[in-house]
Amino acid sequence: LTQDEIKQLVANQAAQLVQNNMTVGIGSGSTVYWLIMELGKRVKKGLLFQAIPTSKKTAALAAQQNIPLAELNDVNAIDLTIDGADEIDPNLQMIKGGGGALLQEKMVAAASRELLILADHSKLVQHLGNFPLPLEVIPFGWKQVQREIRESYQVEAVLRMQDDQPFISDHGHYILDCPFQQIEHPDILTYELNGIPGVVDNGLFVNMADLALIGFPDGRTETMH
Ligand code: DER
Question: pTM here?
């Protein structure tokens, strides 16, 4: 299977978990793109549920598929959130944020009874950190955060750019991509990073995922708990 076919494979399986009257968090990225397409088909056949998007891009795609959208502030809880990941370790700890939506993704995930992650096998790692860790920061004084990361971790944080301008997240923040290489204790690092003045959140999703559905080139899928 091509990588896209693998993404479609896990997305189509995940779409079957969405039942009538559910409130479902919809993640961001190219894997969840296929989930939204599949849910759109099921909405056409009468599936009735409401979606909480994790980015403007996801909201637009879902709206195109006539998936009813709701605001996080208007619901008490989310039954299930389905999202992607950039890295997943054997304990289901993750790095997310490759698409720049980590803040809203983490808030929606935190409000969900269940978090299901969809990924192709290339996202599986023994240790987190090869993928540069995205850090969402307030633009004012972002260089102080960069300096703190350099001095505390000897890591050179890179301001994420888009078309020669700094990337701006849905919530008006910058993203610093931090090449930690090897993150031994994600549970500790996430708290240290979020304690730096000016850091809004980081792409470490620690003890959040309940399940991961992994697709392989031979068409096999595996579930990680
Ligand atoms: O940015 C994100 O957190 C996305 O969910 C990302 O981690 C997965 O994107 P992909 O499905 O396009 O690889």
Answer: 0.98
Contact 5, 214 (CB under 8 A): no
What contacts 188, CB < 8 A, 6 or more positions away?
none
Which residue carries 């980081």 as its tokens? 202
Give the model confidence (pLDDT) of 189-199 as tens digits.
999 999 999 99
Q: Which residues line ligand 1 (CB under 6 A)?
A: 27-31, 83-86, 96-99, 101-102, 105
* 207 Cβ neighbours under 8 A, 6+ residues apart: 93, 187
The amino acid that residue 39 corresponds to is: L
CA distances from 166 to 37, 101, 149, 161, 200 (A): 30, 15, 19, 4, 16
Q: What is the ipTM of this complex?
A: 0.97
The catalytically annotated residue of 38, 87, 105, 136 is 105
Q: Is residue 105 annotated as a catalytic residue, yes or no?
A: yes
